[in-house]
Please model this.
Amino acid sequence: MTTTQIKTNDRTTTPATTVRSNKHTARLDFAKSAPKVFRAVIGLDAAARAGLDPTLVELVQIRASHLNRCAYCLHMHTTDARKAGESEDRLHMVAVWHEADHFFTEREQAALALTDAVTRIGDAGVPDEVYDRAAAHFDEEELAHLLALILTINNWNRIALSTAKRAGTDER
Model:
């Protein structure tokens, strides 16, 4: 068991305890243990994606997975992005998109900024300038779908992290 300090912006929060186990199995199979809930989350995920550019979908999912430190989802979505033709350069730059914004379109940057704000909502909410930037690049329906996508990947990250899913073991 290790204890670390979590730094958020310029403040340090209470110590966090991370338990690392030598067991490489999930704590429970969420899909089998709560099949109706699992199907509902799958349905939300599919509905959220509808009408959004598949490349943008993967970038958002990768960014949220970085922020949430979800290796399982990060591996899954970088693999999917590669299969869809995403470049290695852009995949490597998602984690530092603020410093490498020239790799991304204005629309993608707006989506990534919104992903950052919604994923870290406890830090400062969703600032008006971030929301307004996204609203300038997405119509209301697209923006609603983008928000739903961000909420959904955050949900998937929490499921994977809570059940100790191991990166590289997805069965898709």
